[in-house]
Amino acid sequence: MTFRARHLLGVEQLSPPEITTLLDLAESYVALNRRTVKHGDALEGLTQINLFFENSTRTQSSFELAGKRLGADVMNMAVAQSSVKKGETLIDTALTLNAMQPDLLVVRHPHSGAVNLLAEKVNCAVINAGDGRHEHPTQALLDALTIRRAKGRLHRLTVAICGDIAHSRVARSNLILLGKMENRVRLVGPATLMPSGVGELGCEVYEDMAAGLKDADVVMMLRLQKERMDGGFIPSEREYFHRWGLDAAKLALARPDAIVMHPGPMNRGVEIDGTIADDINRSVIQDQVEMGVAVRMAAMDLLARNLRAERGAKAAGEGTYV
Ligand code: NCD
């Protein structure tokens, strides 16, 4: 089996065979999740803590379901009611939780790099559920699985990632993963919402939606991340929709079989027209949510195997039993 990582901090650290291993395993969990009885035992006896310092609907519930379906004891830390509000530092919170012997720690944090820092302080497997503008590896992996299922392959596709690229960890992780799998990635959006140094990312950059969407196989729309903006990045939401919002006329420029994606939560009428989002012939937004649970099951399963192997080897060396 090709998957050596101890933590899942970003797609940056994953090799193409590791990505394929994870997606193939996730396929088996898609099948399990469609059954009436959805129980596996890959995480039996393990403790999973979800530690979310930022709001989340789908990612947190998806990790919770994924853990429960595989038999883990899952705890959701309610950060809003925790000592974090009393000023406890991230590291103190991590050390406190670490002392409770979790096996998997799923962390979302508003600061880029915070999850990597935390992973150095604990002795369980850490999964990054989104850190600032940095990475959101399970989102890129679930997007990859969704694309592979819809298009029948995950290479030589033209993928247009559109909108608020600068503030988006989803865009960053997708750009890295899709690049590794040899796809052509285009970034499309206003210059004010492009990250600095975008020219060095090795992808095509377009300000004009018509040019950026032309002949695309996949159109991935991003949420306008108003909470990460501290100034006037866009003229107005109305104007933004007019120029960069996905509607039927703009989608017609992509390939006739192009799929439409969005990680959610959506601002309908801002970055995407509601009728496009709901068009079951084009939109795979609900498939993304479904693939999310399967991909998280696969990620935690693989990390748990490595964790058990590591602990088993250590215990054998010490002559103790785990
Ligand atoms: C994304 C996130 O939080 O990074 N959402 C998600 O995980 N489904 C994207 C977003 O918030 O716009």
From TrEMBL:
<dbReference type="InterPro" id="IPR006130">
    <property type="entry name" value="Asp/Orn_carbamoylTrfase"/>
</dbReference>
<feature type="binding site">
    <location>
        <position position="86"/>
    </location>
    <ligand>
        <name>L-aspartate</name>
    </ligand>
</feature>
<comment type="subunit">
    <text>Heterododecamer (2C3:3R2) of six catalytic PyrB chains organized as two trimers (C3), and six regulatory PyrI chains organized as three dimers (R2).</text>
</comment>
<feature type="binding site">
    <location>
        <position position="169"/>
    </location>
    <ligand>
        <name>L-aspartate</name>
    </ligand>
</feature>
<feature type="binding site">
    <location>
        <position position="264"/>
    </location>
    <ligand>
        <name>carbamoyl phosphate</name>
    </ligand>
</feature>
<dbReference type="GO" id="GO:0006520">
    <property type="term" value="P:amino acid metabolic process"/>
</dbReference>
<keyword id="KW-0808">Transferase</keyword>
<feature type="binding site">
    <location>
        <position position="108"/>
    </location>
    <ligand>
        <name>carbamoyl phosphate</name>
    </ligand>
</feature>
<feature type="binding site">
    <location>
        <position position="136"/>
    </location>
    <ligand>
        <name>carbamoyl phosphate</name>
    </ligand>
</feature>
<comment type="function">
    <text>Catalyzes the condensation of carbamoyl phosphate and aspartate to form carbamoyl aspartate and inorganic phosphate, the committed step in the de novo pyrimidine nucleotide biosynthesis pathway.</text>
</comment>
<dbReference type="InterPro" id="IPR006132">
    <property type="entry name" value="Asp/Orn_carbamoyltranf_P-bd"/>
</dbReference>
<dbReference type="GO" id="GO:0044205">
    <property type="term" value="P:'de novo' UMP biosynthetic process"/>
</dbReference>
<feature type="binding site">
    <location>
        <position position="223"/>
    </location>
    <ligand>
        <name>L-aspartate</name>
    </ligand>
</feature>
<dbReference type="GO" id="GO:0006207">
    <property type="term" value="P:'de novo' pyrimidine nucleobase biosynthetic process"/>
</dbReference>
<dbReference type="InterPro" id="IPR036901">
    <property type="entry name" value="Asp/Orn_carbamoylTrfase_sf"/>
</dbReference>
<dbReference type="Pfam" id="PF02729">
    <property type="entry name" value="OTCace_N"/>
</dbReference>
<feature type="binding site">
    <location>
        <position position="59"/>
    </location>
    <ligand>
        <name>carbamoyl phosphate</name>
    </ligand>
</feature>
<feature type="binding site">
    <location>
        <position position="265"/>
    </location>
    <ligand>
        <name>carbamoyl phosphate</name>
    </ligand>
</feature>
<dbReference type="Pfam" id="PF00185">
    <property type="entry name" value="OTCace"/>
</dbReference>
<protein>
    <recommendedName>
        <fullName>Aspartate carbamoyltransferase</fullName>
        <ecNumber>2.1.3.2</ecNumber>
    </recommendedName>
</protein>
<comment type="pathway">
    <text>Pyrimidine metabolism; UMP biosynthesis via de novo pathway; (S)-dihydroorotate from bicarbonate: step 2/3.</text>
</comment>
<comment type="similarity">
    <text>Belongs to the aspartate/ornithine carbamoyltransferase superfamily. ATCase family.</text>
</comment>
<dbReference type="InterPro" id="IPR006131">
    <property type="entry name" value="Asp_carbamoyltransf_Asp/Orn-bd"/>
</dbReference>
<feature type="binding site">
    <location>
        <position position="139"/>
    </location>
    <ligand>
        <name>carbamoyl phosphate</name>
    </ligand>
</feature>
<feature type="binding site">
    <location>
        <position position="58"/>
    </location>
    <ligand>
        <name>carbamoyl phosphate</name>
    </ligand>
</feature>
<keyword id="KW-0665">Pyrimidine biosynthesis</keyword>
<dbReference type="GO" id="GO:0005829">
    <property type="term" value="C:cytosol"/>
</dbReference>
<comment type="function">
    <text>Reversibly catalyzes the transfer of the carbamoyl group from carbamoyl phosphate (CP) to the N(epsilon) atom of ornithine (ORN) to produce L-citrulline.</text>
</comment>
<feature type="domain" description="Aspartate/ornithine carbamoyltransferase Asp/Orn-binding">
    <location>
        <begin position="157"/>
        <end position="302"/>
    </location>
</feature>
<feature type="domain" description="Aspartate/ornithine carbamoyltransferase carbamoyl-P binding">
    <location>
        <begin position="6"/>
        <end position="148"/>
    </location>
</feature>
<dbReference type="GO" id="GO:0004070">
    <property type="term" value="F:aspartate carbamoyltransferase activity"/>
</dbReference>
<dbReference type="InterPro" id="IPR002082">
    <property type="entry name" value="Asp_carbamoyltransf"/>
</dbReference>
<dbReference type="GO" id="GO:0016597">
    <property type="term" value="F:amino acid binding"/>
</dbReference>
